[in-house]
Amino acid sequence: MDVAADLLLGASCPGCGVPGWGICTSCRTSLSAAAPFEVVRSIASFPAVSSAMVYEGPVRRLIAAHKERHARGATPALAGLLAAAVSHRRSDGALTIVPVPSTRRAVRERGYDSVRLIADAAARTLCREGRSVEVVPALRHVRRPADQSSLDTTARWANLHGALAGERVDGPVVVVDDVCTTGATLLEACRALHAAGVETCEAATVSATVLRRSRP
Ligand SMILES: [Zn+2]
């Protein structure tokens, strides 16, 4: 939690808004019900993606609070979910985690890179569990895409294509992000890493939207 903001605005749970310090018991209970699942998207070349929770309820609000409202106290909870998703994707052996990068502008405005914070904490969790996991920021923006919010899936893919450049990193790579909606960002991230010579590239996210028919 951003202490200065709390003192100014009054402390509340970043997952549901009830007054108090940090994530409330009810939201923690909701997060503890996470059951990682395979994310399915009908786009050609879509990578293998695992996610910890459906993007709704407390986890959705926690991600928004972490990204937009400086709720950095939510980092451990979100990192725990991301670590579970990474393990669901790749349950043993060494791996390299590559975070989807925030734009320089977003980092400047927020003062931190939300996904990087979650990725670093998730890697520490996995290392404590005995895994050999390293975070390598091997992706960077090379072109600023237009605002994605009003675009459909096909338009998002076209908008994002070529937006990222990757560096070659060793070992199996798991790209991580906070949320997977259309999947266009993960597709572009894996395309950029493949283009840089990475052979095995999968992905994991804290949460993902799902079609009603294919809910886990
Ligand atoms: Zn709550």
Write the layout of secondary structure elements.
Layout: H1 3-9, H2 25-32, E1 37-39, E2 49-54, H3 57-68, H4 75-89, E3 95-99, H5 104-110, H6 114-128, E4 133-135, E5 139-141, H7 153-160, E6 164-166, E7 173-180, H8 184-195, E8 201-208
Parallel strand pairs: 2-8, 3-4, 3-7, 7-8
Antiparallel strand pairs: 1-2, 5-6
Helix pairs in contact: 4-6, 7-8
Bound molecules: zinc ion (ZN).
Zinc ion binds next to α2.
What are the key terms here?
216 residues, alpha/beta, two-stranded antiparallel sheet, 8 helices, binds zinc ion
Overview in brief:
With 216 residues, the chain is an alpha/beta fold. Helix content is 39%, strand content 18%.
Number of strands: 8
Averaged pLDDT: 90
Span from first to last CA? 31 Å
> Can you tell me the overall shape?
globular
Low-confidence stretches: none
Rounded to an integer in angstroms, the radius of gyration calculated over CA atoms is 17 Å
